[in-house]
Amino acid sequence: MVKVYGRPAEEVTNLLRQSKVTIDVVGIGNMGLPVAVSFAKEGAKVIGVRTRQDVVDRINQGECPFIGEPQIPELLQKMVKAGKLRATTDGVEAARESDVVIILVPLLVDELGKEDYSIIRSAARQVGKGLEKGHLVITSTTMPPGATEKIVRPILEEESGLVAGKDFGLAHSPERLMVGRVVRNLYRFPKVVGGLDKASCEAAAGVYGVFGEVLQTSSLLAAELAKVFEGTFRDVNIAYANFLAKLCEPLGVDAWEVIHAANKDTGEHCMIHRPSSGVGGHCIPVYPWFLINKAKELGVDATLLRQARHINDTMPQHTVDLVIRCLNAQGKPVKGSRIGLLGLSFRSDVKETRFASSLIIREILSEYQPEAILAHDPHFSKDEIRKLGFTPATLAEILDAECVILIAAHKTYRESLAKLKKIKNRLVDTTNLLSDALWKVGKIQL
Fold it and tell me: Can you list the domains of the chain with their CATH numbers?
C-alpha cells in the first residue's frame, strides 16, 4: 500500500502514472465508470464498486453497461483485459485493497427538495470498515456545503477508529462532468479540490493531476460550493431563457434568434442559455436545493433560486399548452388525438430520463384523454419505452400523429430534417432543431 496522504501532489501524480497507486471508485454508474476507466488509462490500478451483481459481471467481462459515452466501451474492454480495472460488490474489501477511495454515488432529493443521504452514508460505512492509516478518501458526489465533514467524516472515523486529518486524508473534488461528455470534461475542465487539511488537499491534487490542471481551494467547504454554484447558475440562466421564450411568443418574435444576437461576440458579459421543455438530468434540478436549504438554515433570502426552479418546472405544462394550440389550429382537441414524442431523454444523444420533461409531459397530456401518446427514442427499446408509460412507435408512425413534440434532438432526428419539415405545421419543437417550425418554445404562430 502506498501512503498517499502526506505526499506532495507531484509525487502522487508520478506514483499513479507508474501504476503504484490503487484507486477504489465507489459508484461506477454513468459518471463513476468513465472516471474509473480514465484513471486506469492514466496508469492507476482501479477497483470499481457497484451494488448490482449483474452490472459488476458485465463490467468484468469488458462489457460497458451504459451507452452514449464516447471512448468508454473500447477503453473499458482494453483496461479489463490488461488487468488494470475490475469491479466488485464488496465495498469493504475494495477500500482495504486501495490507496485512494473516491466516493461518487448519487445524492437524491425528495419532492420537497430535502436531501436524502442514505446512499452516501451506506457507501461511507463500507469505506470506513476498510480504511487504514495513510488512506486518502475523496468525496466527489456533488453535495450541500459542509456535507463531507458533517456527514461523511463521522462515519469514516466511527467505522475505522481512525482520525481524519491525522491518520487518513479527507478531501472533496466535485465531479465537473456531464453524461455523454465525461471523458472530454475530465481533461477539459480544471479539477477543483479542497481538503480537511493541507496534506489532504495536496494529495487529492496529485490524484487528479493526471488529467491536467488542478485548482486547490482553501477548504472542503469552498470545493463543495464551487460545483453547487456552477450548477445553480445554469438553472437560473435557463430559467431566464425560458422566461424570454414565454415573453417572445406573444410578441411574434423568435427568442432563439434574439438570444443568438444578444450572445454574439459578447461572451464576456452575455451568455444566455437556451429555452427548453424543462430542466432534466441528475444535476441541475437538484443542486439549487442545496443552496435553497442552506440559505433557509442561515436566514438568507433564496427567492431568486426558488423562482428559477418554479419557471423551469412549469415548462412541461407550457409545452403541453403549445400542443393544445397546435391541435386547435387544426380544428382538433387533444381528446381523441394521437400525440407523438420524439426523444425521451432529458437532452440529445444520451440515455437518461432522470427528471426528464418527457415523463412530466406524458402525465399532463394523459389528463386530456388523447387516443394515444406515442414515443420514439433510438436509445430505448420498445419494452423500455412501454415501461415509461408510452406506446412505442416507429419514426414514421410518430410523424403521422396529429401533433408531434420534439423533446431531444438526437442525431437520428438531426438526420431527418427533411421529414420534420413536412410536418412543421403540427410539430412542437422544444429544441429549435427546425427553426421554421410553426410551433416551438420561444416562437409560435400568431
Answer: 9-218 (3.40.50.720), 234-444 (3.40.50.720)
Of 445, 410, 446, nearest to 431 by C-alpha is: 410
Pairing verdict, β 427-429 and 403-406: parallel
* pLDDT (average), residues 429-442: 95
Q: What is the pLDDT of residues 19-29, one digit of tens each?
A: 999 999 999 98
Task: Give the residue from 282, 343, 273 showing the smallest Cα distance to 311.
Answer: 273
Count Cβ atoms within 10 A of the Cβ of residue 86 and give its class: 0-12 exposed, 13-18 middle, 19 or more buried.
middle
Rg (CA), the chain: 24
As a whole number of angstroms, the distance between CA 114 and CA 164 comes to 27
Residues with Cβ < 8 Å from 343, sequence gap 6 or more?
358, 376, 377, 406, 407, 408, 409, 410, 413
- Picking from 352, 349, 375, 380, the residue whose alpha carbon sits closest to that of residue 362 is 375
Asked whether the whole model's pTM tops 0.70, one would answer yes
Residue pair 162/131 in contact by the 8 Å Cβ criterion: yes
Q: How far is CA 256 from CA 61, 101, 149, 278, 355, in A?
A: 46, 44, 43, 16, 24
In this structure, how many other beta carbons lie within 10 angstroms of the beta carbon of residue 82? 10
Rounded distance between C-alpha atoms, residue 423 and residue 219, angstroms: 55
Distance (Å, rounded) from C-alpha 174 to C-alpha 138? 9
Are the C-beta atoms of 347 and 408 separated by less than 8 Å?
yes
What are the residue numbers of the active site?
Answer: 227, 283
3-state SS assignment for residue 104: coil
Contact partners, residue 328, CB within 8 Å, separation at least 6: none
CB 241 within 8 A of CB 432: no
**Nearest 10 degrees: Cα torsion 4, 190, 87, 123:** 70
DSSP 8-state class, residue 347: S
**How sure is the predictor about 266, in pLDDT bands with cuts at 50, 70 and 90?**
low
